[in-house]
Amino acid sequence: MKKKQLAVWMAAAAALTGVCGGTMSACAEETYYDETVTLTLLVDQGWLDTYGEALEALSDAALEKYNIEIDLENKTNGSDGDNLVKTRLAAGEMTDLLIFNSGAQLTALNPAEYFVDLTDYDFMDNVQEIFKESVTIDGKVYGTPVSSSNVAGIVYNKQVYEDLGLEIPKTWDEFLSNMEACEAAGYTGIMGTCGDAWSSQYTFLADYYNVAAAEPDFAAEFEAGTAKFATTPAALRSWEKLSDLQNHMNSDYMATTVTDGFDKMLEENAPVHWPMTSQFFSYMDSLSSREDAEMFGIFPIPSDDESVNGFTVWMPNGLYINNDSENVEAALTFMEFWVSEEGMDVFKEHAQADGPYLIEGVELPEDSYEGVLELQSYFDEGKTGLALEFLTALKGASCDQICVECISGAMTAEEAAQVYDEDCEKMAQQLGLEGWE
C-alpha cells in the first residue's frame, strides 16, 4: 500500500464537559462528550509519511464515537526533533499526546516527570509484555504501541532457495554453506550496502537474540560496565559473524547504498541474501511491486546451536500522555480506543504491517506480506527478544562505522569489539553511568 503524507486536518473545538467514571475504568466504553474535545498530538514527519492515513482514519472514528478530535503538530525527524521534544517538555509546552520512541530514548525524557503512569489501567492488559518492557521505567509503564513490530534478520530469495534445494539455516555454519552454494550457482552470496553505513549494523544488532540466549544478563551487566563485547564470547561472536561476510558480498559493497540494494536484489545473478529488517517487504513493494516483495522471505541470524533460533525485535514508537494536559481523561479514552480490537481494525485497514501487532487478540490481516505472516509463529512461540537498544541507553556513537571497518577487514572482529567497547565507554561517561568512570 502506498502511503500519503498526512496534513493537519482538525480544527479547534469547545472545552471538555464530562469525564470518565473512575481513573482506572474502561473510559472508552462509557464516554461521549457533549462538546467536542480537541487533543493536540505531536509526531514526527517520518512516522506520518508511513502511518498518516491510518492515524487520520483512527481519528475520524474517535470523533464519531466519542466526539474527540485530534489536532496534529508535526516535528522534524532525528536529533533535531528529539531536542524539540525535550525543550517543550522542560518548558511545560508539550501537546496532550506525543508519539515518540520506545526504549532507551524514552528513558532519556524522564517519563516519570512528564508522562501519565499507565501501569494500573485495565486497557493495558491488551498490550503485549514485550512492548510494555520497552516503555517501562522503574517498574512503571508509560506508553502504548502505535504500529506493528519489526524484526531484523536475513532477507533471502525464496525462488533461489527452492531451485538450489536449500533449507533455512539453523546454524551460522549452515548459513555460510548456503552462501557458498549460491555462489557456486553464479549468484552473489549476500548484499552489502556500506554506502549507507547505518545498514552495516543489522547483522551485529540482530544477533542480540543469540547473545541474550547465552548470556541473559548481558544487557544489565553491559550497562553496569561489568560485561564487555570483547571479553564476552557470545557477544564477541556477533562481531565474528560480521567479519565473515566480506568475501561473500557484491564487489562494490563499500559504495552501494540501500536504495541501490533494492535494485540489485532484482538483477540477474543478484545477491541471494541481505541483512535487513522486515520493513524490506513494504519498501520493495513501494519501490518496485508487491509481486517482487513476495519473492523474498526473512529468517533470524543463525546461532551456533540449532536449538536456539529466534528474532531480535525492534519495538514501534509509543503513544504517551502529557501529565500536565488539561484533557487527560479524553486522552486516556483515545488511547484505550487505539489499543482495542475495534480501534486496531480501523488502523489495520489503512496501514501495512512490518511484523506482528503487539495487541492481544489482534492478528495480522490475511493480505499482509507472506514474509511478515511467517513471523507470527516466532512471536506465538516466544522465540523473540528485544534489541539491545531497548534494554539499555548505552550504544556507541560510532557503531555503524566500526561495523563497516569490521566487514571490510580493516579491523578484525576482536579489534572491532575492543574499539566498540571503548566507544561505549565514552557514551557511558556522557550518560553518567556508574561502573564506567
Question: Any overview of this molecule?
Answer:
- Helix 9 runs antiparallel to helix 11 and helix 19 (399-408) runs antiparallel to helix 20.
- Strand 4 and strand 5 form a beta hairpin.
- This protein is 41% helix and 14% strand.
- The strands form 3 sheets. Strands 7, 8, 9, 10, 11 and 13 form a 6-stranded mixed beta sheet that branches. A 5-stranded mixed beta sheet has the order 2-1-3-12-6, with helices on one face. A two-stranded antiparallel sheet has the order 4-5.
- The termini are far apart.
- It is of the alpha/beta class and 437 residues long.
Give the tags:
437 residues; alpha/beta; six-stranded mixed sheet; five-stranded mixed sheet; 41% helix; disordered N terminus
In total, the number of strands is 13
Distance between the termini: 50 Å
Q: Which geometry do the CA atoms define?
A: globular
User: Which ranges are low-confidence, i.e. pLDDT below 50, for 5 or more consecutive residues?
Assistant: 1-26
Helix-residue proportion: 40-55%
- Largest sheet descriptor: 6 strands, mixed
Topology (elements, then pairings):
Layout: E1 37-44, H1 45-66, E2 68-75, H2 78-91, E3 97-100, H3 104-107, H4 111-114, H5 129-134, E4 136-137, E5 140-141, E6 144-145, E7 150-157, H6 158-164, H7 172-184, E8 188-190, H8 202-206, H9 208-214, H10 218-224, H11 233-243, H12 258-264, E9 271-277, H13 280-287, H14 290-293, E10 296-299, E11 311-314, E12 318-321, H15 328-338, H16 341-349, H17 370-373, H18 376-380, E13 384-386, H19 399-408, H20 413-431
Parallel strand pairs: 1-2, 1-3, 8-9, 11-13
Antiparallel strand pairs: 3-12, 4-5, 6-12, 7-9, 7-10, 7-11
Helix pairs in contact: 1-16, 9-11, 11-20, 19-20
